[in-house]
Amino acid sequence: MDHKIKKIRVYPKEPIEWNNGVYLGMSMNNKMFKSAETIAEMLKLIGEHTHSFTLLIGDYLHRYNEQIFLGYDEAEAIEKSIEKGVYLTSLFKSVAKNYSVKYDLRYSSEFKERSDFLIRLEKFKQLYQDNNRFHELINDTVNIFLRRQSDIKISIHKAKELCRSYLFEELIIFEMLAEEGLNVNIYPGNQLPLIKVLVSGKLNNVSEKLENIQAIEIKFRPS
User: Fold this and answer.
1) Contact 31, 60 (CB under 8 A)
2) What is the pLDDT of residues 38-92, one digit of tens each?
3) Please, are residues 193 and 11 in contact by the beta-carbon 8 Å criterion?
4) Tens digit of each residue's pLDDT (9 = 90 or more) over 104-150
5) Are β-strands 102-107 and 184-187 bridged in parallel, bridged antiparallel, or unpaired?
6) In the chain, what is the greatest distance between 2 CA atoms, to the nearest angstrom?
7) Which long-range contacts link 160-166 to residues 24+ away (Cβ below 8 Å)?
8) CB 220 within 8 A of CB 32
């Protein structure tokens, strides 16, 4: 069944800054990246407004989900996540070759190799301890996510810990991209509640770079 874009939500509410560095986030479990039809719709939308964008492939990040929901150890989880990334990237390329919009590929694993990655990770971990609002938003995001899942293979305590690690790493990647001039985060689904609060200006002293990005949600409907 074909899918068409039903709604586009922008946070904060203002016109999308298409010339301010667009990137499209690909998560391994998002079914919109498993359909040639929905990939085509995303490419058409982006191509109508800008000549190029970045595809952020969350393969390495996905290792946390593999551990939580499939019970793999970290090494196995990384291997499975990379395999999924290869498959979904191949599908994306096969569709994208039919469109003129240019794109470059960025993998979540590359950011972990940056010299300041661990410094940033410690920053967010410390903020989690010291900033009550940040702490609440991280916990709320984790709890909402896990409540929707029916098959967790590890203890709930460990699952929450891994989910927090996922969020911290994701924030680091978004922050690094913003520093490179990529400020328009597009995702086919719900943006993180934390990101929505950050860009609204209601969470200070966490990341000035993230306060100034745009978060875009693309919602699809069957047609």
Assistant:
1) no
2) 999 999 999 999 999 999 999 999 999 999 999 999 999 999 999 999 999 999 9
3) no
4) 999 999 999 999 999 999 999 999 999 999 999 999 999 999 998 88
5) unpaired
6) 49
7) 162/64, 162/67, 162/68, 163/64, 163/68, 164/128, 164/138, 165/64, 166/61, 166/64, 166/65
8) yes
